[in-house]
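Sequence dictates fold. Below is an illustrative record:

_____
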Amino acid sequence: MTIIKFTLIIPVFQTASILQLFINSLSETLSYYSQIIFINDGSGANISSMLNSFKHSNHSNADITIIEHLQSKGCAASINEAIKIIDPSCDYVVFLDSDLILQKNWQDMIVDDFCDNKVGIVGGMLLYPQTGGVQCCGITFQNATGYHLHLNARPVDVEQLGKFEIQTTVFAFCAIRYDAIRATGYLDESYFNGYEDWDYQFRVRSNGFTAITDTRIQHFHWEKSNGIHRNYNRKSNLGRFWLKHSSEVQDDLCHFIKNGLKQHDICENNIYNLIDLCESRSISQVLRSFLLSDEGIQINEKDTLASFCDKHQTIWLPEIMNSHAFKKQTPYLFLCDHYIRLLDNKYWWMLRHHYNSHDLIIDTYGNVLLFSTLQDSFWPGTKIR
């Protein structure tokens, strides 16, 4: 019987309370022998003490190494140090953020996914602990912009997609076949705390491997381990990524939207009135063209109200649509940057649903949903006075 071995690489730039939640979940969910490499990237003596305490506790199925940095060197350099000491007998390498709360059976699912020899990268579905909504289940691209696919969607809706191919995901949780890492080499350290993970996965895929999201794999992710200077280096990191990979990136947002439309019962005669609320005007043009050419949907009327939407603020439909718009018998198709901007429309929906309750929303993160599903989120809102 073949013994499968994992190597877990975990950069740590973290607070003690969040790290403890991660360590607890890691202890409770390990089901395969694992080499665990922590890189304490300048988090201080308190974090070092916690990691050493974990190392010396009873872990019969783990070999734990701790690399210490007195000052932060960043994610790419930290991971490269760990790659140098991966056990040569390793099968799968998993990159983990130290602010995850891991759920059970994730290693079993990774083993199952890698039964397909073409698969070199496996990502999961990361969820916000605050809301339970989707934080990331892969990256979708359109017009030289990357979006976290299905951001804030309900996990139950995304689960229906099962496993699907992506171009890249995030290293917060990412499993890569060790053969693919040997073929690809080290991370590019000219990136500093941002987009080195996208770059590396594009390099892995250039060696003939595919990347998938497995929606069965679900973890909570606090997003509290970004490291130093992340925002300052964002522009240069992104510029470097596009300079290297612009010819390889495929626009695939419409592909995911088409799959989303298949999950919904399109209205009886397939006719909609399109309401364009997108501040991202170049993306809007792409999505409008896609919807106008889609055989499953017919657009009756088109109205662009994006000029009334500003700076990611809440969109109040009674304020920007005419006073009788709610009486339209034809369902609306709202096109927006992100659907959560429509959450403050309890009053409008109270009027609207008497005339038609089949309005659709499509956003630039690949979400497709009925407007009616928002009604569970209208109350209590987030207002504080």
About this structure: The chain is about 30% helix and 25% strand.
